[in-house]
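task queued by scheduler; priority normal; single chain, no ligands, no partner chains; default sampling; output format set to structure tokens
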Amino acid sequence: MNVKLPEGLWYTAEHFWVKEADGEVICGITDHAQSELGDVVFVEMPKVGMKVKRGERVGDVESVKTVSNLYAPLSGEITEINSALLEKPELINQDPYGKGWIFKLKPENLEEKALLLTAESYRREIGSG
């Protein structure tokens, strides 16, 4: 299995990636997750301003095969959603680490980041290395 796993991002066992940017984190699903899901047809996203706890369900990604829950990778407040996905959910398949990001979050406790996986740990988690 040849999945893209950019270094410098953090990952969760629930197949989310997390990237720090200007005091916030940008979140999306991994290349592995989008390839397992197949063609994404709909994304239910959290509401801007919503306070979330790490591990809490914040939405769903619906594909032609299945519906998969989205879980908050860190506790904090949702500051922005990728509204482009409302019109073009397939951006998740086309560019999961770029235009296919799902939401931004202002973390309330960056120490939770220690619970996230490195690219190497995530690769082991999904059995591709």
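post-processing summary
- The first strand starts at residue 10 and ends at 11.
- Helices lie at 31-37, 84-87, 91-94, 119-125.
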